[in-house]
Epoxyqueuosine reductase
Amino acid sequence: MDVVALKEEIIQYSRTIGIDKIGFASADPFFELKERLRQQQHLGYQSGFEEPDIDKRTTPSLLLSEARSIIAIALAYPSKLKNAPRSTKTERRGVFCRASWGQDYHVILRDRLQKLEQFILARIPNARVKSMVDTGELADRAVAERAGIGWSGKNCSIITPEFGSYVYLGEMITNIPFPPDTPIEDQCGTCTRCIDACPTGALVQGGQLNAKRCIAFLTQTKTFIPDEFRDKIGNRLYGCDTCQLVCPKNKGKDFHFHPEMEPDPEVVKPLLKPLLHMTNRQFKEMFGHLSGAWRGKKPIQRNAIIALAHYKDESAIDDLLMLLREDSRPVIRGTAAWALGKIGNRKVMPMLQQAKENEQDEDVIREIDKALVMLENV
Ligand code: B12
């Protein structure tokens, strides 16, 4: 088997199936990453969304015996919204992060990887392959870094010279000994814009994130957002792009290569108030195809309430009072109470008092009390 020729064939083929960048890496254990993951775990800096088994995360041969190489792929996604609807005083809108525009990237990258697998298996029928995107055990960034897709930026993202960091990553472990590519040199230099711009100070230092403080993480939780972060969420409904937006390497990077990734502006920058009363079915119909829907309706609704508070949107008061009275979920009732306090119209004080009398949930009662204190001080 001529692995050099096959590698070249794969590279050529990848261009015909909508893979924007491809790289090859050895399947050796990721020793440095192992140390880093242990440290992150020890410091409590992990999100909890990662695969918990650090050995599996860092040892490709535990995932595919006879692993010899990893093929890394990257697909560029759009960063600019065409015909973005305006957010007006009474018609406020929230935003989904760019990685959740268009169709769920897991579906798109899996499709590309499946095609690559078929291409390889047609040439080497007994080849062994195992592909993954995001939810697999491997650390996609560490693979991409080793395969020369991009360097690991101070904002933690893999930054490609061609597309900036607006790329999705995926990979395939194989038992074919492809010659590896060379990693790209770090090009962040002395720049610290991402660290300085992070709204919550989640970037502890270049290349190290305390995920528990990262807004991208906080928007995906299902419980109450800790008080110190609520004012920082702004109008974000899912994810956060700040550390990428300020990155000079992303300046002017906006690629529209994949029709499936084209965002519908009304979906990724939706009106906030209608989100509050969505049924599960309506949620699925409107947002079900986005990667940002994976945690369901509740976090998006909670974030919408926080966004309305951020805008001090008085036109949302009736909707929020209705949630406080009628919603079955404590997180929604409590966040609505807090938002009413934030909006700052004292006329709702009797309604908050009434809700407090009827309320059984201690967390919600605490949120009502916070709101009443805010309103007393208006
Ligand atoms: Co995310 N996420 N995520 N995510 N996430 C993934 C990383 C991935 C790869 C998904 C995908 O495309 N397949 C993409 C990244 C694409 C890219 O880099 N170009 C992705 C995206 C797009 C995002 C967001 C941009 C989404 C958004 O909101 N707009 C943000 C970006 C936040 C940020 O990192 N600045 C986002 C947010 C999150 C949360 C929910 C916060 C968590 C934690 C993020 C984090 O750890 N930084 C999160 C997770 C858990 C993941 C997931 C599932 C695991 C990441 C992980 O293992 N983190 C991956 C998918 C996957 O890998 N399976 C996607 C642990 C840390 C320690 O490792 O950053 O992945 P790492 O890897 C680097 C470090 O370990 C570093 O090098 C590695 C390679 O760069 N490193 C260093 C290792 N050793 C050492 C030693 C030293 C000294 C230093 C300095 C660094």
